[in-house]
Amino acid sequence: VEACAASNGHTTEEKTDMPDSPQSPDREDPTGAGLDRESTTGTPRWVKVSAIIAVILVMLVVVMLLVGGGPGGHGPGRHF
Amino acid sequence: MNMTPGLRKFVFTAHVVSSVGWIGTVVAYLALVAAALTSKEAQTVRAAFLGMELIYFVLVPLAFASLLTGVVQALGTTWGLLRHYWVLFKLLLTVVATVVLLLNMQTVSSLAGVAASDSADLPGAGGQLLHAGVGLLVLLLTAILGVYKPRGMTKYGRRKQRELRAGKRDEQRAVLVP
After folding, report:
1. What is the pTM for the complete model shown?
2. What's the first-to-final CA gap in chain A, in angstroms?
3. Which residues pair with B84 in a beta bridge?
4. Which candidate from B110, B150, B168 shows the least CB-CB separation from A7?
5. Would you say B152 and A46 are in contact if contact means Cβ atoms under 8 Å apart?
6. CA B76, CA B81: separation in Å to the nearest integer?
7. Is B26 within 8 Å of B97 (Cβ atoms)?
8. B132 contacts A17 by C-beta, under 8 angstroms
9. Is there a contact between B123 and A17 if contact means CB atoms under 8 Å apart?
10. Are B52 and B28 in contact (CB under 8 A)?
11. Which of A21, A38, A76 is the closest to B78 by Cβ?
């Protein structure tokens, strides 16, 4: 662990101080193979799914704004 | 650019406190929205709208503190701001939440103005339920991202990692072959 921490430019104490450092996801994998795998693989599935959901939501909001009469229809006057 | 452990802890604490505080304040805001929607007492409804306007004095500083400390923390550690997808998503969600919060401020001010006037018509709070409800979901999502930190590096992050490794290899060679 120390060697791993040192190779990343941190001391072991620093690593303990910051439990959420980038090395944390690989804590269960002391060989560091996980980090290597992460660096070579493409975009993860969760990113693709999230991006699709985000695009759908943005389109939905735009449609709602347009149906509501554009930016002018979204404001204080809309709530009376 | 890495921060010292002491500074890192301080910024991390400030980020957690401001982010959790922001979530808690939105929950309190939703309680006022619920009061405005369900109460049959005109005075309660008026007071709820005035309370919503006052809560903005807490919401806006917390939002900016959360955004600022998050950016400083990302830039000051090896996570970086654009290297990992979860950090990038968290940043985008926080920026969107802050922008919507600021845009909604004008609406709330206007509603509170009507509620404070002698007008017999009371404003509706349906829009506030939507804004605050979706806002709470977005903030909970950022909290989940911050805790679980799902894997995945951006192209920029992978390139930076390769550069870092190449630099370290060169350093090791220089030590072994003087």
Report:
1. 0.78
2. 62
3. B153
4. B168
5. yes
6. 9
7. no
8. no
9. no
10. no
11. A21
Cβ B80 vs Cβ B91: under 8 Å = no
Rounded to the nearest 5°, which phi and psi values hold at A38? Answer: -60, -35
User: If DSSP codes are grouped into helix, strand and coil, which group holds residue B1?
Assistant: coil
Residue whose token pair is 């805001």: B29
Are B89 and B65 in contact, with CB atoms under 8 Å apart? no
Sorted by sequence, the CB contacts under 8 Å of residue A27 that are 6+ apart come out as: none
- pLDDT-flagged residues of chain B (< 70): 1, 177-178
Cα angle value B168/B150/A3 (rounded, 5°): 30
Cα B80 to chain centroid, rounded: 18
DSSP string covering A13-77, please?
A: HHHHH-TTSTTGGGTT-TT-HHHHHHHHS-S-HHHHHHHHHHHHHHHHHHHHHHHTTSGGGSSGG
CB contact under 8 A, B110 and A47: no
Touching check for B159 and chain A: CB below 8 Å? Answer: no
How does pLDDT run across A21-53, given as a tens digit for each residue? 555 444 433 333 344 445 556 889 999 999 999
Q: Are A14 and B5 contacting, i.e. CB atoms less than 8 angstroms apart? A: yes
**Residues facing residue B116 across a β-bridge:** none
As for the ipTM of the complex, it is 0.76
Residue found by looking up tokens 């060989």 in the block: A31
Q: Helix, strand, or coil here: B153?
A: strand
